[in-house]
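Saturday, quiet lab. Running sequence design on the structure tokens for the scaffold JK sent over.
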């Protein structure tokens, strides 16, 4: 899920574990810990797009990582709390600038953020009861481990069982979903304004946790319901396929996208729970896998296939440069009705080796696609 959602979840978990003892500090540390697994994005500063994507949601999102990092953070916080928090917040906030290649600006911003944190965190915490290392370890473990468990519900895949080479992806919620995050955020923020011993503080946070959990259960139900509709439609249309994947479309769990693998073709379709009937119109998309037959760099090709779980469509531009489109997230549609894919890799082959780059989607085209998506959610 997105960083804001993980921050909110981490803050809520921190409050449940240690809020009565240390108040908003529990939320603060829970929020920081809830962000730590995603610091693996720093890999993009050192590796190409493909390698960075392979490593994303790897070790840092594993059960083993949570077990190892939680006591380490507990020890650091007990001994050097202000310094540790200032450092971690600096790392988290400086990345968006550093990732663009502006090391000078990012470094300067990092120093400013660090100094501001250091000044803000000079508050004396001696009025709070003594917090043992065991308490800190519990807070960090639960704030860390809930992050990858939440990510498992999305489509990208999370290596929860690292070092085993399996990325779990339950495909029941989009990486950003306001209906999951916003109510949760509101109740956590309201809870912050109550004293640490006030009964309404934990009550507000608990309501946020319950609402977000109920929404997640709803998304699983919506996935099951729409999967059966897609399956029935494919059968009625006589489509023979090997496997069927369904995912929610961006920002919601009302409109679902299906992709059926019929070897050289994918059949893609959309269904909204607000549709007036249960008929799904499928569009066929040529996978064009044969375009990769001439590729000599089989190792890189196999890595992309593994990462996409063999859900991909190959295209070629006028200059003959191939594009490996990751089809796991489903296509997006513009007003012309043709399906397109917004995530993938441009393959520049030189001397038998593939140089992989990841192009940015066109803003204008994506804006049009979001407008089509919004109308389609409501059955239009």
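Result came back. Writing it out in full:
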């Amino acid at each position: 899920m997105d960083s804001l959602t993980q921050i909110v979840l981490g803050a809520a978990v921190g409050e449940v574990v240690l809020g009565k003892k240390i108040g908003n500090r529990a939320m603060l540390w829970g929020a920081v810990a809830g962000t730590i697994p995603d610091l693996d994005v720093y890999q993009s500063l050192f590796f190409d797009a493909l390698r960075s994507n392979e490593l994303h949601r790897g070790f840092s999102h594993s059960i083993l990582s949570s077990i190892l990092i939680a006591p380490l953070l507990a020890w650091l916080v007990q001994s050097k709390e202000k310094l540790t928090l200032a450092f971690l917040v600096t790392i988290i906030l400086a990345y968006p600038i550093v990732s663009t290649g502006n090391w000078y600006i990012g470094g300067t911003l990092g120093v400013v953020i660090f100094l501001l944190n250091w000044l803000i965190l000079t508050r004396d915490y001696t009025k709070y009861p003594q917090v043992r290392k065991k308490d800190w370890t519990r807070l960090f473990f639960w704030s860390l481990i809930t992050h990858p468990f939440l990510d498992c519900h999305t489509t990208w895949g999370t290596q929860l069982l690292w070092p085993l080479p399996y990325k779990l992806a339950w495909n029941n919620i989009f990486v950003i979903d306001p209906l999951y995050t916003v109510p949760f955020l509101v109740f956590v923020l309201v809870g912050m304004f109550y004293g640490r011993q006030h009964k309404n503080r934990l009550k507000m946070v608990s309501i946020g946790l319950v609402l977000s959990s109920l929404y997640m259960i709803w998304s699983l139900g919506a996935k099951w319901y729409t999967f059966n509709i897609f399956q029935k439609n494919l059968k009625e249309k006589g489509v023979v396929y090997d496997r069927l994947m369904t995912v929610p479309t961006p920002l919601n769990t009302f409109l679902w996208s299906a992709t059926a693998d019929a070897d050289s073709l994918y059949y893609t379709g959309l269904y909204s729970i607000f549709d007036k009937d249960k008929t799904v119109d499928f569009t066929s998309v040529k996978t064009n896998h044969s375009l990769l037959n001439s590729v000599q760099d089989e190792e890189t090709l196999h890595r992309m296939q593994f990462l996409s779980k063999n859900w991909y469509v190959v295209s070629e531009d006028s200059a003959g440069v191939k594009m490996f489109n990751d089809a796991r997230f489903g296509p997006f549609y513009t007003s012309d009705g043709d399906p397109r894919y917004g995530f993938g890799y441009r393959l520049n082959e030189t001397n038998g080796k593939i140089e992989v780059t990841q192009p940015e989607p066109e803003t204008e085209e994506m804006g049009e696609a979001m407008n089509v998506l919004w109308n389609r959610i409501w059955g239009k």
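Notes for JK: Residues 199-236 form the longest helix (38 residues). The beta strands are 243-248, 255-262, 265-272, 282-286, 312-316, 322-326, 332-333, 339-340, 344-350, 353-357. Ask whether to fix the surface positions before the next round.
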